[in-house]
Design brief:
Length: 213
């Protein structure tokens, strides 16, 4: 009889102990946890950008083998990627949409144009976008000026791809095919306005057609 009281007391005591110990879960400990099987969790290695005495140049990271090209970065088609032929001259055709862009390609070009170009170049490319009206120091040229009309498709592509003077590049934001579709759309804008007023000079064309939207 007495024994069974002791057993009960011990069980109670142990249960309270377990309860108390379990309360300490998720409490911050200063010491690192005991790691019985380290597997590969803890290993001597060099982290990126750290120095190392092991290599002669003191850098932990190794240079890639010469001529290494990152996957997807092989830009072997200079017309498509740079808008230039193999002699380095700008091409005057559109390798993505061809001479007669499909309505779908033009619609895509228009949509991308409205997102990425209108802030500075204006709704139809007159060079009077909202950013310019709020004080961007350089006004872009009108897409209907003789100068821009005379540009090759490849040059307009390269302006989007690499930027020009005071215009930043848009290659990081706009995927390759979309850049060419924007070029097709700009050409289409120019063609349509040219038809409207084929005998007028640039200044008159601009006066006549700006703010018509
Ligand atoms: C942040 C404002 C800004 C945006 C956005 C912008 N441009 Fe421009 N763009 C400029 C400025 C400013 C110039 C004039 C650069 C200079 O002459 O210094 C320019 C010039 C140009 C030119 C003429 C280049 C030359 O050699 O004269 C073309 C073509 C052009 N932009 C096309 C585009 C297209 C297409 C887009 C959309 C993908 C675009 N731009 C987006 C500001 C912008």
């Amino acid at each position: 009889m007495k024994n069974s009281i002791y057993i009960k007391l011990t069980i109670n005591f142990l249960s309270i102990l377990v309860l108390l110990i379990s309360c300490t879960r998720e409490q911050p400990f200063k010491k690192p946890p005991i790691h019985l099987n380290t597997n590969m969790d803890i290993q001597g290695k060099l982290k990126t950008q750290t120095s190392s005495n092991f290599f002669a140049n003191g850098a932990g990271m190794r240079m890639p083998v010469e001529h290494t090209i990152a996957r997807g970065d092989l830009k072997d088609d200079s017309q498509l990627y740079f808008g230039k032929d193999k002699d380095g001259n700008f091409i005057d055709f559109n390798p993505v949409t061809s001479a007669n862009p499909s309505p779908k390609d033009l619609a895509r070009g228009q949509e991308r144009f409205k997102i990425y170009c209108t802030p500075c170049h204006g709704q139809v490319g007159d060079g009077d976008g909202i950013v310019i009206s709020r004080g961007y120091p350089i006004k872009p040229p009108s897409f209907y000026s003789q100068k821009v009309r005379a540009f090759e498709d490849g040059y307009i592509y390269s302006v989007i791809n690499e930027g020009v003077r005071n215009m930043p590049p848009y290659a990081p934001q706009i995927p390759l095919n979309d850049r060419w579709k924007i070029v097709a759309y700009v050409r289409n804008l120019q063609k349509n306005r040219q038809n409207l007023s084929s005998n007028l000079n640039d200044e008159l064309i601009n006066q006549q057609t700006t703010k018509s939207y």
